[in-house]
Amino acid sequence: MVLKMISGVYWDQGAGRINQDSVALQQVMTYKGRVMMAVVSDGIGGLKEGEVASGYITERLIENFYCQMVPLTAKGKGRKAVKRSVLRCLYDINENLKYYGKGKDILLGATISLLFVWGRNYMIIHLGDSRIYRYQTSKYHKCRVRQLTKDHSDGGSRLKKCMGSFPFQFPDITFGHLLGKSGFLLCTDGFYRKLNNEIIKVLAPEDVESDEQVYIRLREIGEEILKKDEKDNLSAVYAVIG
After folding, report:
1. What does each C-alpha distance from 236 to 10, 50, 85 come to in angstroms?
2. pTM of this prediction?
3. DSSP three-state, residue 186
4. CA torsion 184→189→193→199, rounded to 10°?
């Protein structure tokens, strides 16, 4: 059975002078089925060149998606091979950011939350305080939302884990299986910080019918967040799969 996907991306500078968020949404059809990757990365505002860190992380992950992850899954490789591919890429990214930071005598870094889907399997890679949520509609037609990632922060503005110009930190890695239709929301802290339960209503998987509709709803959520005086950049990717 070929999985169907409806998706959209929202990316807004907000009140910030620079947008330090980067996002990616990539998908390919192979003879083994659909392969999809979504990423959000948020540059650390307290350090230098957060937009460089998040942009480089995202660019390298897109490259790895096409050069490594898609071929691996097309050959029928399993979780271990996919996991090793991403970890090698992340380690190399971190080493290059260290080298870049040393050359300019600066520290830079960014969060990373990545969702990779192949067949009915998914993998999450996570460092920092961006988030991934899963939306599922039960047989009683009630949408349930669950946060799949844990914030690597002290509850304030200080991150305990991230990617950047410092020693490599092992990410949280989660595997799961798709049952029925699921919605996945990846977002930076500027997007989720002032959300309320209304998010459940507008992003319920059963109520989303097109890519355009996803974008419109993400944009409407973003506009409401900005009205609440959110000062940070706002970024989100939402995909309904099933």
Report:
1. 5, 17, 25
2. 0.94
3. strand
4. -20
